[in-house]
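Listing S7. Sequence submitted for prediction.
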Amino acid sequence: MLRVGLTGGIGSGKSTVAQRFSTLGAAVIDADVLAREVVAPGSPGLAAVVERFGDEVLEDDGALNRAALGAIVFADAQARRDLEQITHPLIAARTAELVQAAGEVSIVVHDVPLLVEKDMGSGYHLVVVVDAGQEARLKRLATTRGMTEAEARSRMAAQASDEQRRAAADVWLDNDGSRDDLVVAVDRLWTDRLVPFEKNVRTGTRSRRPDELVLKGPDPTWPAQADRLLARLRRGFGDVLVTADHVGSTAVPGLVAKDVIDLQVGVRSLSDVDDPAVVERLRLAGFPVVGGEWHDNAKDGTVWPKRFLGSADPDRVANVHVREVDSEGWRWALVFRDWMRADPGARAEYAAEKQRLATTITTVREYADAKEPWFDSVHERAQAWARSTGWTSPHG
């Protein structure tokens, strides 16, 4: 099953996207609909609300008077928390029922207006954000909901900012154009990314770039992409995970790199990752464990063992290196990254070596092997930098 979180500001066109996903075959779960369902007339949820807030929150026909309840909870933070303690568990339970009913071979789209505000992104394989410019949103809200400009601006100001949504978004759907343009973008996302992503999760298949070597200029979004992946890895590993870091070239600002995010997970023992329950949990999270013997080559000819995972997302290739905390391999990945970040001369030297190799080497495999002598040659320099600066790992 592939879980997709869908969100967007008021008036952005999120409902249009949700409808299109439903047409394409997704199981769409609307959080707003469930919020109403759990306090429907005769429901235990409504009874609990009335017990807490009194009969004044009811209409004459026994339905919930949302305006009356809203006037209470928006003026009183404790009252709002009390309402959330009643409704949120009910909504979560109903959501879980619908997800289970969707079956394993499916794409579930969870339409959640406050996904960013509630920091829920790590619970999904992907977060899709629908956005439009402020003027377009104001016009839609006046046309479709009859809002005044002041009302619309007040609602917009109370929601997450564009910057917060961009940080949370794996996919950004721009809805400043026509409805047809938006539908085309959703169809393309469905066909090119979501359908193969779901299959990869189901079959435990990692995504891979073609073996042709392509170096990309520095991408300022790499750190945010890594942060989202790390949050999902923490959830997937659970208590087995001790540390989680963005490493490799994409973790060094200004450095050219293959468009592959390298991540390091630190564990107490590699055997923890061999537990079938952990392997299955990681597969379901979209990070299949790749079988076989994996290790890094040390300068003295010894090897540093590790486990290796990949991302199942066909549009975001990521390599996850699992090493024991405080092992030589774990420490080296962090020292090298931090040296590169701190030393412009070393960073420029590494970039030049990358570019030199790219002029004669055509495959990623050859490129990885060809860099080994350079790594060996700078090993002591990196270690000397760590000693001279009193470097300690970010985990203490």
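Caption to Listing S7: primary sequence and predicted structure tokens for the chain studied. The chain has 14 helices and ten strands. The mean pLDDT is 92.
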